[in-house]
C-alpha cells in the first residue's frame, strides 16, 4: 500500500492537558494502542541522513512494515508491507528494499556497509482520537495522537502530539497549529520520534565517528557485534551462490560473534547470549565444511608443488582436486539447505533482535576505556593457561592443546579488534600481534588436518587402482610439520610476553 503522509508534531509537557481543536473539528472517541517499532538503517545511518525512515511496527491500527520517503513538497510517501510472523519476521520485505534502492541509487553501498540493521527501538503508549468534520461526523479530517514514547535500551522518555491528515487539507494543519499555539502547545523541535531518539548519531556517523573510549562500554561492543551481523546478513546471496570468499567472510563473522559474546559476557544477560552462541556455532559449522574443503584443496595442491617431480606418482593432482571439489560441492549444498531452514531464519531474527535490544547488564553502561581492557586481560589469561598446557604436552595431545591455544588467541585478537576503533593504536597493534599467533598456529592445524585428508584420499585412490606412494610422502611431511610447530609456539610466547592491555 502507498499513501502520502502529511502531519505535524507538537511538543507537550508530561502532565499538560490535551489541547482542543476548537471550532475546527469535533473530537471522536479515544482509542488506546501500545506499539513497538524497530527502526532499521545502514551501519552509518544512511537512510536517516537522506530523510528516509524504515520501521517494523507491532501494535496499533497500522501494524506492519512502513517505509517513508521524502517528497519535494515536504510531505512523505509512505509504503506499507505486511508485518510477517514466524521465522524471517525481521527480514526487510524485498519490495521495500527495492524502494530504498530506487530512492538512494548509487548512494546505497553493496556489501555489509549497506546492510539494514536495527538502529533504534521505540515503544509508544498512544491515545488516538479522530478529528471529525463539524458538519459531517462521518468524515475524519485528521487523527490526533497523544504519544508517550520510550527509546530503548537507554530508557529515555518523552511525550509528543501528532496530527496527521486523513481527509483534511493543508490549511487545516495550519489552523490546528495556530489553535494549539494559543493554548501553549508549539511545534516539536524534532521532525520525528526517530530523530529525537538518535540525537547526534546521524551527524557523527556521517563524519565516520564511532564509539569513544570515554563513552559506554556497551556502545563499543554493540558496534562490533553489528559489524559482524552485517556481514552475515549482507553476504547471504553470495554464500548461496558460492561467490569466491563469501563463505570465508561469513564464517569469520560468525567466529567473531561467538567470541565477542563470550569475551564480553559479563556485560550481557547470559540467558540470552549463551543460547545464541550455540545457534551461531551451529551455523558456523555449516559454513566451515565447504570452507575447509577449499582450504585443504589449495593447501594440498601447494604441497604437491613443493615435491620433486619424481615423487609425484600417478594422477595425484587430479585425485586431490576431484576429491576436494566433491566434498566442497556436497558441503555447499548442505549449507544452502541450512540457510533455507526455519532454524536459520530464526537465528537471523535473533541476531537482529540482539542489536535492537541488547541484554546489557553489569558494567555495560560504564566507561569503555575502564571496563573493556579488564575483559581482554581475562581473555589473555585464558590463552596463557592453554599455552602452558600445550608446552607441557607431547604428540597428539600437544597438537590438540595448541589448537585450543589458537582458539583462545583468536578470542584475544577479536577482542582487541573490537576495542581498536575506540581505544586506538595500542589495541590495533595488539590485534596485529595476536593475528600473527592465529595465523602461525593455523598453519599447524592445517598441516594436521591435511595429513588426515591425505590418508582418506589415499584409500580412495587405492580402491581405484591408483598408486598411493605420493600420498604417504605428503602425509609424512604434513605430520612432521604439524608436530614441529616451532613458529606457532614462538609467536604465542611473544604475544604472551607483551600482552595488551
Automatic annotation (TrEMBL):
Annotated CYTH domain residues: 3-204
Region annotated Disordered, chain positions: 192-212
Biased composition (Basic and acidic residues): 198-207
Domain CHAD span(s) in chain numbering: 214-501
SMART domains per the UniProt record, alphabetical: CHAD (SM00880), CYTH (SM01118)
Name this polypeptide is given: CHAD domain-containing protein
UniProt source species: Ornithinimicrobium pekingense
